Amino acid sequence: MTVVADFALKRGEFTLQIDLTLRAGEVTAIVGPNAAGKTSVLRALAGLEHINAGVISMDGVVMDDAHRVFMPARDRGIGLVFQDYVLFPHLSVLENVAFGPRSHGVSKVKARATAMHALQQLHISALAARRPGSLSGGQAQRVALARALATAPRLLLLDEPLAALDVQTKNELRASMVARLREFTGCSVIVTHDPVDAMLLADRVLVIEAGHVVQDAPPAQIAAFPHTPYVAALMSLNLIRGTAGNGEITAADGSSVQIADPYLSGPAAAVIRPESVAVHRARPEGSARNVWSAVVTLVQPLGDNVRIHMEGASSMIATVTAAAQSELALAPGMTVWTSVKAVDIRSYPLSSGSQVSPAE
Amino acid sequence: MSSTRTTRAPWFLLVPGLLALAFLIAPLLALLWRAPWGSVLDIMRSPVALDALRLSMITATAATILATVLGVPLAWLIAKSQLPGTGIVRALVLVPLLIPPVVSGVALLAAFGRRGALGGFLYDTFGVQLPFTTAGVVLAEAFVAMPFLVIAVEGGFRSLNSQFEEAADTLGASRWTIFRRITLPLIAPALGAGMVLCWARALGEFGATITFAGNFPGVTQTMPLAVYEALESDPSVAIALSLLLILICVIVLVMLRGRFLRPLAAT
Predict the structure, then answer these.
(1) Residues from chain B contacting residue A93 (CB–CB below 8 Å)
(2) Which residues of B touch A86 (CB under 8 A)?
């Protein structure tokens, strides 16, 4: 099972440009800011939106070529879990899940058996007789997943499957979804804005910003080598992008950062973990070669530590211990100095393509 | 707390408001006051009354079925299709609501009369004649009452979350299955309300019916026509028949209240 999606989708001023190949057994997460086009990718794959150029095909069979061929959603063999689940309110849970098999021409008895099996796999067979209106968010989410899986789809599409849930339910469901997606033999695509979902559920992360793919890599690589400020912020990292040479990276605004790698050249990025950023009330003396001044914008308690958000030449976050914070007494509006040792900066080249090879 | 405090009505709203209420209730009370209670059961059981009642029930129900079968697709076209001119179509649908029913009757005669545009063709080709027949009564009632159904059902289609249909689509359902198993059940409250309104309007239809179908006992004389005729000979019979009509409307409303008029539980 291979899905090729190489298409453009235009809606007014907005253009979505995607070139993507999905392989069987692979879970792809699509992350990106709001209105980046994540859901449009799912809807185009599902057959709920027409593409304007390019092609979508599954195992070589064309689903949509923007001109002559458009296979309707019902014939594509897909399963879609909507963000707000969209369970049919007038049907019981069992009938909701049996709806897919029934629509594929299976007898009522057999469809119900298939539905019951799908419910059992997600450990929710006790809900079979209930109406969707009486379900909790987590239960409705599992029913929606069972309904999508009951038709044995080749391509499973999940739109923000955990977004509407409270934190505890989210953690429980994430674990059971990891297990369920591991068993699934088709392709799956999961749209999310939660980095934890992307890290735990996906084999591959596709970052979309303003309708374009800005990074396409395994989760660990995305986390270690973010390409854009959005991804860096998602991973709680500081990112500086610019041109490397002579042991430093110079950003477009003229500011520069000293790095440990003297041989790196061309377009490059540097990431700094918030824990590596030291914050001072006065300009520090010492060995740190990167010293910037910045204004504190937000002080956010984070467990035993405190996260300091700052705006300087670029925005920056630092994590300091609660003890350090009680000594520094940082507050929004305060001008501070930050310093980072060059050895604590991870630098790597930014290729024009989406894949990046690690170079530390 | 301000939210639980009862609002004292100012006199300039209270007085006309109560007057309006009295105006609406007084004629109904007068009906009860003037009713010939000694003979009311005998009048209701008389052949004229029973014939008119039977005919009214049959024609109003048939007109509602006709209006539903044709009106639901029309409501869908207005609400969901992106065809050009749906705004004009919606306005046209309202025309039978606005024009006097007797004008509707004249218009129906022009269309379906023996020498009418369509009626001539029907008579010459199939020997079918609609004016002054029971079928003509159904036609007249459907013409006048269908807009009520179309408007109610169109509202239902319009407020339906299209994601339900999209979800059914991704699950492999055909357009017909989606319409039958998802769309129709989800608009059931609107459809039920529309059918009740349509039926009640058809039951009370007078002007278009008497103009297009005439007033023949047993064939085209529905309850309102029988009431009108009785009024000329014996007003107490007219009052008894009127009470019967009101009673039927109340019974139907009470019977259907819990079934259709309650909105579906929100998801």
Answers:
(1) none
(2) 161, 163-164, 166-167
The 10s digit of each residue's pLDDT in B170-227 is 999 999 999 999 999 999 999 998 999 999 999 999 999 999 999 999 899 999 999 9
Q: Which of A78, A90, A99 sits opposite B264 (nearest CB)?
A: A90
State whether residue A100 sits within 8 Å of chain B by CB: yes
Q: Write the CATH number for A274.
A: 2.40.50.100
Q: Does A86 contact B181 at a Cβ distance shorter than 8 Å?
A: no
- Would you call B158 an interface residue with chain A, using a CB distance cutoff of 8 Å? no
Q: Which of B234, B244, B249 is nearest to B45 (CA)?
A: B244
Q: Which residue of B has its CA nearest to A42?
A: B170
Q: Is A152 left (phi over 0), alpha (psi -120 to 50) or beta?
A: left
Q: What is the pLDDT of residue B260?
A: 54
A184 and A261 part of one domain: no
User: Are A269 and A334 found together in one domain?
Assistant: yes
Same domain for A149 and A297?
Answer: no
Identify the domain boundary among A224, A247, A269: A224
CA distance B168 to chain A (A): 8
Is A216 found in the same domain as A244?
no
Q: Where in chain B are the domains?
A: 57-221
pLDDT tens-digit series, residues A175-218 = 888 888 888 999 999 999 888 888 888 999 999 999 999 999 99
Please, what is the Cα angle at A86 between A82 and A87, to 5 degrees? 125
Positions in chain B whose pLDDT score sits under 70: 1-6, 258-267
Residues of chain B contacting A78 with CB distance shorter than 8 Å: 170
**Chain A contact for B176 (CB, 8 A cutoff):** no
Contact B172 A86 (CB under 8 A): no
- Counted domains in chain A: 2
Domain containing residue A243: 236-279+286-349
Nearest Cα neighbor of A349 from A237, A279, A259 is A259
> Could you give the C-alpha distances from B244 to B49, B50, B239, in angstroms and in order?
9, 11, 9
Residue A355 within any structural domain of the chain: no
Does residue B265 belong to the interface with chain A, where contact is any CB pair within 8 Å? yes
Whether residue A356 has pLDDT greater than 60: no
ipTM score assigned to the predicted complex: 0.83
Top CATH class of B57-221 equals: mainly alpha
Picking from B166, B177, B185, the nearest residue to A103 by CB comes out as B177
Report the 10 Å Cβ neighbour count for A275: 13
Q: What phi, psi does A232 have (nearest 5°)?
A: -60, -45
- Which value, to the nearest 10 degrees, does the dihedral of the CA atoms of residues A13, A16, A17, A19 take? -170
Size of interface A-B (CB pairs under 8 A): 70
pTM over 0.80, yes/no: yes
